[in-house]
Amino acid sequence: MFLKWPKKVHIKEVGPRDGLQNEDKILSSDVKAEWINRLSEAGLVSIEVSSFVNPKWIPQLADAEEVFSKIHRKEGVKYAALVPNLRGLERALKADVGEVCLFMSASETHNQKNINKSISETFPVLEEVVAEAKSAGKTVRGYVSTVIACPYEGEIPVSQVKRVVDRLLEMGVDEISLGDTIGVGVPSQVEALLSELLKSYKADQFAMHFHDTRGTALANVLISLQMGITTFDSSLGGLGGCPYAEGATGNVATEDLLYMLTGMGIETGIDRNRLLQAAHFIEEKLEKPLSSKQMELARRTRKE
């Protein structure tokens, strides 16, 4: 029996924020802007540019305003940023972000470690941000971390994830990105999570955000596709990680995800050659090899 795959998938690039925030090397705003321009020229229509959290917490992204001022905005591309609170939102609106991204965890302990608040304490803060962002005419995206498991609490019950999702959608969040932050999930767990959430909500209200710590990210994408999800977060070169989970590696690599989807006949609107050129660019600037399969293959081919 042949499975029916979607005709088109929307890939959201999170490398400039989720990827670079974990790098020891701090890149200049000019380099970041050039990389983002290359990503938009490759056909990506949703790019998470930076974060408006307090610069002392993430020095790698302290230049958010500068980066937004230097990118060449391409028509049809949504330039997003992470926003923690009203102060961050004020900075983001001045920079003219295209989409406001919120973040919290389905794990109580991870939420405390990550943003120094309980889940219940986080809701009112985010509710204010959603209301103000909507008033400013912005779309709002909510990241929910550790939807499969947490480095402190172990496996997270689906009911716990649903509690957070329910509240965020009640606030008016347009899309929820469900994150397997430490990359431990397997397809059966993803299926169980989505089976429960899709009883109450439509598939187009969700995106999936998989890390590839144990090599299961693309398998998890496949089960998500089968269940009707058509939006996925990824990071060029597999950049990223989780600072609170020892050994957790980066996001599923955009170029690896693209290879699979293209081979399946699924449209993405992304030019593979230009995407790989953008990957080579950031690889040189970071002065380290990117870990994706496509980039490893390119390095082997050059040696041969």
Automatic annotation (TrEMBL):
An example molecular function term from Gene Ontology annotations: hydroxymethylglutaryl-CoA lyase activity
UniProt domain Pyruvate carboxyltransferase: residue ranges: 9-276
Entry annotated with the keyword Metal-binding: yes
Alphabetical keyword list: Lyase, Metal-binding
Matches recorded under Gene3D superfamilies: Aldolase class I (3.20.20.70)
Keyword Transmembrane: no
InterPro entries associated with the record: Aldolase_TIM, HMGL, PYR_CT
Pfam families given in the database record: HMGL-like (PF00682)
GO terms of biological process kind: ketone body biosynthetic process; L-leucine catabolic process
Family: Belongs to the HMG-CoA lyase family.
Protein name: Pyruvate carboxyltransferase domain-containing protein
Organism: Bacillus smithii 7_3_47FAA
Organism lineage string: Bacteria, Bacillati, Bacillota, Bacilli, Bacillales
